[in-house]
Amino acid sequence: MSEATSGIALTADRPAPDIAALIRATFSWGTVTFDDIRTLALTWPEVEDGTSYGTPALKVRKKLLVRLREDGDSLVMPGVPPDERDMLVERQPSVFYFTDHYRDYPTVLIRLSKARRASVEPLLRRHWRTLASNKAVKEYDATM
User: Fold this and answer.
1) Is residue 10 part of a domain?
2) pLDDT tens digit string along 10-59?
3) Adjacent-strand bridge partners of 73
4) I need a surface site. Which of 55, 95, 98, 118 has the fewest CB within 10 A?
5) Which Pfam families has this protein been placed in (predicted)?
6) How far apart are alpha carbons 116 and 92 in whole angstroms?
7) Range of the domain at 123
8) Distance (Å, rounded) from C-alpha 55 to C-alpha 142?
9) What is the CATH number of the domain that holds 54?
10) Beta 107-111 vs 74-78: how paired, if at all?
11) Residue 114 domain-assigned?
């Protein structure tokens, strides 16, 4: 792309911008970590830190919202019906999966090293809404 087509004047004191870095910063296309999930969820009412099966977890009114799996790279995400889970696994098998242990539960496993916030946040938020009190959900919705 030339200066004429990009609309960006390049000079010695204004080097070419790192377009990829600008895109990453603007759209947050990086993978997510458990700390990212934790930071997000702790902004919602009634969410608190906890543990589950010896791993870091987030809970709502003492019920499991999400936990880090023992491998340190996967989230155990309850609240995902088997038909939806199957669709997620089919569409993005590098991100979503499940093991035989979870086959009969409404749960999907999410590989954080492959996931994007945009694919995790809606599932997390939906599950939070089912666990939080009606009052907390209404108050949160009023601020949005």
Assistant:
1) no
2) 445 544 554 444 434 434 457 899 999 999 999 999 999 999 999 999 99
3) none
4) 118
5) YjbR
6) 11
7) 31-137
8) 33
9) 3.90.1150.30
10) antiparallel
11) yes
